[in-house]
Amino acid sequence: MNAFEIIGGKKLKGEITPQGAKNEALQILSAVLLTDQKITISNIPDIKDVNKLIELLGDLGVIVERLNKDTYTFEAKNINLEFFSSDVFKAKGGGLRGSIMIVGPLLARFGKAAIPKPGGDKIGRRRLDTHFLGFEKLGAKFIYDSKKAFFNVDATNLTGAYILLDEASVTGTANIVMAAVLAKGTTTIYNAACEPYLQQLCKMLNRMGANISGIGSNLLTIEGVKKLGGTEHRMLPDMIEIGSFIGLAAMTESEITIKNVCYDELGVIPEVFKKLGIKLERRGDDIYIPSQKHYEIDTFIDGSILTIADSPWPGFTPDLLSIVLVVATQAKGNVLIHQKMFESRLFFVDKLIDMGAQIILCDPHRATVNGIDKKYQLRGISMTSPDIRAGVSLLIAALSAEGTSTIYNIEQIERGYQDIDIRLRALGAQIKRVEGNGPSH
Predict the structure, then answer these.
(1) Which entry of 49, 121, 387, 421 is annotated as an active-site residue?
(2) pLDDT tens digits for 165-187?
(3) Where is phosphoenolpyruvate annotated to bind (predicted)?
(4) 208 appears as a binding residue in the annotation
């Protein structure tokens, strides 16, 4: 098992470019199954979850060609539907949450699919009901084999329907959109997610010949078409990385420029970090963060404690709440972090408390942070990364801390962040990869 060893307390300096968006990649790559024509996709992040999905597409029979570091072509001419009943698929599909995303396109094009019960982050229950209920509304029939933990799906006659989603799930919306583009008639999806990633998917599908209107709103209308063709697509930069780098700059008092951020697609993210007192400025399509000794959390107008909560887009993304929480530990002032979506995402705060942060975990969804205004540094400890986002939050804490920290289970971090140690070293961070089995306690 690999670990990161970090010597903290060092100011960083320089430029860093965010990778392509992981959450967009899982949708866009799955969409290549909707056509037998060639699709070229660029700015693909070189990370484990994405590479596993590309490998899975190859196993299904998609002709995959890598043109350069971040650009691939995909041609899904001959798909081997027998692969679904193989043990290889069971092992690979079960180990990757993103594998659920291939179901919609396969149902649309071939009328059948199968999926093992997916795995992924340990951040509480992540229901897939939204996906399945949407497919059922379109006419798909599910048979769950509890012995093999496998779903078999029959969708020989998908027909457009009115669908009210029980939650504005990004992956759920994407999957249902991909199933609906080739269904007969009109599909209306209400309470649809409208994240930039989803807008990207809908625009790409329209370029392929789909007929989707309402893009960017929570009401999507899809007129089914007979066939889709090829296209070219470039993915957005990863907004979660961008937010992580803003937090990193503030915590380590570093002067950092984040390059090519597609600023107009970041929504409220820059504003939320400004509420924590972090100075940042837009320079063209870059974000410049000056070195800052202190930053002070805003209060509400009546002086009451600021609350930062996640909510569906255009609200604040839940993936950045753990970053906001860690950054607040060194701010002046207090903030209540309210994680509405996942019930176990805040459980990593015990590690921050061990490092010297002042945090009260109110319940599985809420934590109050009492910022220590850098009166003293956090101290380095040994810890284990429970999930992707918490892992990076702990990494940021370690880079700002006094002394040496070791983070185990970094495979979790690397599922979402490409070459993170190499890119941080380029800014001057003291971080190296070491062998390790985890903390002894």
Answers:
(1) 121
(2) 988 989 999 999 999 999 999 99
(3) 22-23
(4) no
CA dihedral 394, 395, 397, 398 (to 10 degrees): 120
Categorize the per-residue pLDDT at 124 as very low, low, confident or very high, splitting at 50, 70 and 90.
very low
CATH number of 22-234: 3.65.10.10
Closest-CA residue to 180 (of 128, 140, 234): 140
Residues 422, 432 contacting (CB under 8 angstroms): no
The pTM of this model reads: 0.90
For the segment 378-425, what is each residue's pLDDT rounded down to a tens digit? Answer: 999 999 988 888 999 999 999 999 999 999 999 889 888 999 999 999
Q: Where are the domains of the chain?
A: 2-19+237-435, 22-234
**DSSP states of 311-331:** -STTS--GGGHHHHHHHHTTS
Residue 118 phi/psi, 5-degree rounding, is -75, 160
Rounded distance, CA 367 to CA 131, Å? 30
Judge whether 22 is annotated as a binding position: yes
- Is the fold of 2-19+237-435 the same as that of 22-234? yes
Percent of the chain with pLDDT over 70: 94
Where do the H-state alpha helices sit in 98-195?
103-110, 129-137, 170-180
**Phi and psi for 31 in degrees, rounded to 5?**
-65, -15
Go through the chain and tell me how many residues it has.
441
CA-based nearest residue to 23, from 202, 203, 171: 171
97 is in an annotated binding site: yes
CATH class of the domain whose range is 2-19+237-435: alpha beta
Distances (CA, A) of 123 to 67, 344, 357, 396: 36, 5, 22, 19
Q: Per residue in 33-83, pLDDT tens?
A: 999 999 999 999 999 889 989 999 999 999 999 999 999 999 999 999 888
Among this protein's residues, is 387 annotated catalytic? no
Placement of tokens 């990778």 in the chain? 19
Neighbours of 239 (CB within 10 A): 24
CB 232 within 8 A of CB 32: no
